[in-house]
Design goal:
Length: about 160
């Protein structure tokens, strides 16, 4: 089975010119954790996720600190949070995006998700234009259908 058989074709996207606040409101409204960012030609130029938002509100050194404890005053957090309206998605998105071709086998997509630690992968046509997106849930549905655990109509 190819990824084109299980992907979502009606992909909701973000513009690089949207504010981070506006983008997060869209994610919350849709109850999802991330969306692809596309240019005017529907070419994927980034991915914006809740993780990007969390990174914006914490001190820059947190990732390097690892498991060490850090202290952050709530005023610093409040200040960073209040500035999200001024920050554009292009400045906060992950620019290195893993994409797949619509003819990629779905098991290969599952492997990529596990080995690269991604939850969703944009699907491109031969011209490199966004035509779909596949999420972990789509893979899980296929696994469950194969083992008889999910009624196809329930999906």
């Amino acid at each position: 089975m190819k990824v084109k058989d299980i992907m979502t074709r009606d992909v909701i996207t973000l513009s690089p010119d949207m504010s981070v606040k506006e983008s997060m409101e869209k994610l919350f409204k849709l109850h999802i954790s991330g969306l692809p960012v596309v240019d005017e030609n529907k070419k994927v130029i980034g991915m914006f996720t809740e993780k990007n938002l969390i990174r914006l509100t914490l001190p820059n050194y947190v990732e390097q600190a690892g498991e060490f404890v850090f202290l952050m005053d709530i005023e610093g957090f409040d200040k960073k949070s209040s500035e999200l309206e001024k920050i554009k998605v292009r400045d906060a998105m992950r620019k290195e995006v893993i994409c797949v071709d619509e003819d990629t086998p779905f098991v290969e997509v599952a492997r990529i998700m596990i080995t690269k630690g991604v939850r969703r992968i944009p699907v491109l046509n031969k011209d490199g234009t966004l035509v779909g997106i596949v999420a972990r849930e789509d893979i899980v549905k296929q696994i469950m259908e194969k083992c008889g655990g999910v009624d196809k109509d329930a999906c």
